[in-house]
Specification:
Blueprint (H helix, E strand, L loop, with lengths): L30 H29 L31 E18 L9 E17 L8 E3 L5 E7 L2 E2 L3 E2 L5 E7 L1 H10 L6 H17 L2 H18 L5 E7 L2
Parallel strand pairs: 4-8
Antiparallel strand pairs: 1-2, 2-5, 2-6, 2-7, 3-4
């Protein structure tokens, strides 16, 4: 019998047939990117849950409030309010008029284009004017009752118009056009009182409108009705009110 060679494979171990073990299958296309994408989603979800939990704890006052390091802060350095004067008033405000005016103010230079040097402001001004009777100006003998006490005659000073009160909460600038040199001048040396001219013009227009609106006549009528009701309750059957010239 012939002897087997020592270098020949035997059947004592698996794979002795000479065949090599099969290689593992290659990963599916995109499998690695899908796995990393899922991991990123898990991390983001955990971070979101942590933020929600911290906000919940802050809402329930279990944690101190977080302060924004870039939050806007306001510092009030206003000094104490000084009392300048006290004035006793004896005015009876009998009527009030509310007005609105559109001011279109333009300032320019001759022979200079507006785009280079010029300014135009469109401003809507809202204000009110009171009409009052100053009882402090009533002189002696202004109230003359009859002997039987059934009627009385009262002489009052004519109603006056108060100062125009421009309501800045209801007033606003619609449009403002400025030339190139005006814009440069504002950057170098801005005038904080520039709008005062527009405000004064609005007040002047409202004052003029109040004088022409019959507001003083309404004040006369309202004052007369007030005195008739007041003195009528005191037993006077007839109340005559006359006004002196202003």
């Amino acid at each position: 019998m012939s002897r087997q060679r020592d270098d020949q494979p035997t059947g004592e171990f698996p794979g002795d047939s000479g065949s090599r073990p099969a290689a593992p299958p290659p990963p599916a296309p995109g499998g690695s990117s899908r796995g990393s994408g899922r991991g990123l989603l898990v991390v983001l979800g955990a971070a979101a849950l942590a933020v929600v939990a911290l906000l919940g704890l802050q809402t329930t006052n279990l944690l101190p409030n977080f302060r924004n390091p870039f939050a806007e802060e306001q510092t009030d350095r206003t000094g104490p309010t000084l009392l300048k004067s006290i004035q006793d008033l004896s005015r009876y405000v009998a009527a009030e008029g509310n007005f609105q005016v559109v001011v279109d103010l333009e300032n320019d230079r001759r022979n200079v284009p507006d785009f280079l040097l010029g300014e135009r402001t469109l401003f809507v001004g809202a204000g009110s004017v009171e009409a009052y009777v100053d009882f402090a100006k009533i002189g002696e003998g202004a109230v003359v009752p009859t002997e039987d006490g059934t009627s009385v005659e009262i002489k009052l000073p004519a109603p006056e118009l108060g100062k125009t009160n421009l309501d800045m909460e209801k007033s606003y600038v619609v449009a403002r056009e400025r030339g190139l040199l005006n814009r440069i001048g504002d950057l170098v040396d801005g005038d904080p009182n520039r709008q005062q001219q527009v405000y004064r013009m609005a007040e002047e227009r409202i004052t003029t409108a109040a004088r022409d609106s019959g507001l003083a006549d309404r004040a006369q009528e309202n004052t007369r009705k007030m005195l008739e009701q007041l003195l009528g309750s005191l037993g006077y059957d007839k109340v005559t009110v006359t006004y002196t010239a202003p």
